[in-house]
Amino acid sequence: MKYCNILILSFCLFTLISCNTNDTETEQLSENDTVQYAVTIEMTDVTFEPDHVTIIEGETVRWINTSQVTHTVTADSGLAVDNSNVILPRGAEPINSGSLAPGEIFDYRFDVPGLYRYFCVPHEAAEMVGEVLVETQN
Questions:
Q1: Opening angle at CA 83, ends 77 and 87, nearest 5
Q2: Nearest CA to 133 among 33, 52, 62, 69?
Q3: Is residue 108 a contact partner of residue 36, using CB atoms and an 8 Å limit?
Q4: What pLDDT digit, counting tens, does each position of 40-71 carry?
Q5: What span, in angstroms and rounded, lies between the C-alpha atoms of 58 and 108?
Q6: CA distance 3 to 1
Q7: How many CB atoms lie within 10 A of CB 122?
Q8: HEC string for 73-105
Q9: Contact assessment for residue 130 and residue 52, using Cβ atoms and an 8 Å cutoff
Q10: What is the pTM of this model?
Q11: What is the DSSP pairing of strand 60-65 with strand 37-43?
């Protein structure tokens, strides 16, 4: 009886571990397959690199904070000191990543074609501004 209980417990534990590992691998594959980044923009000390990119509507841009200071990706005239640092196409919603600590990432999918001008809230005075031109898909 004791041997049977150990065998059943071992089988259940093996099954549980096997199922958990397979689910995790499937989720990772699905996530990687569904999100394609058209471009990656690095946030350095006071610049977006590159500061101007062109993509196709429906594509996603990834921003990575590679500096040692906090940044934002913001296209919201309500948060800008200088409204010329914000351009949004008609029908586009304001963008605000919130504070991104060093090493953090922000992804945004652009579904409305047009020119987007964005800035970093803490570094707007240093002219940390970037642009994304979203072209229509043919």
A1: 70
A2: 52
A3: no
A4: 999 999 999 999 999 999 999 999 999 999 99
A5: 10
A6: 5
A7: 15
A8: CEECHHHCCCHHHCECCCCCCCEECCCECCCCE
A9: yes
A10: 0.75
A11: parallel
